[in-house]
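Entry 14. Structure prediction run on the chain below.
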Amino acid sequence: MSETIKKLGLIGIGVLAITEEKIRQTVDELIEKGDVNREEGKSLVQELLAEKKKQMQELRDTISNSVQNSIDRSKIATTDDVARMEDKIAELEKTVKELSEK
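Output returned:
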């Protein structure tokens, strides 16, 4: 079956670039030509869709990590940073109020 995938050229360009419809269409053509039987075709579609899902998750993770690294390097305040500063300001306001009442 992996030979069939190679024939399709899907490994070289990555499954990510191919739509589910195109995968199904290509596998149906292979079935019609007799290159694979129906069961192999069904399995091939599932395998390719699983690979596509895996590649999509890897892409999301890569993008997310890149964005997070860019934010970390840019010294932009995060939501957590702002929340900590708000807490500190509230604490300081309370201290000032207590000191001014004495």
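The chain has five helices and no strands.
Filed with the rest of this week's runs.
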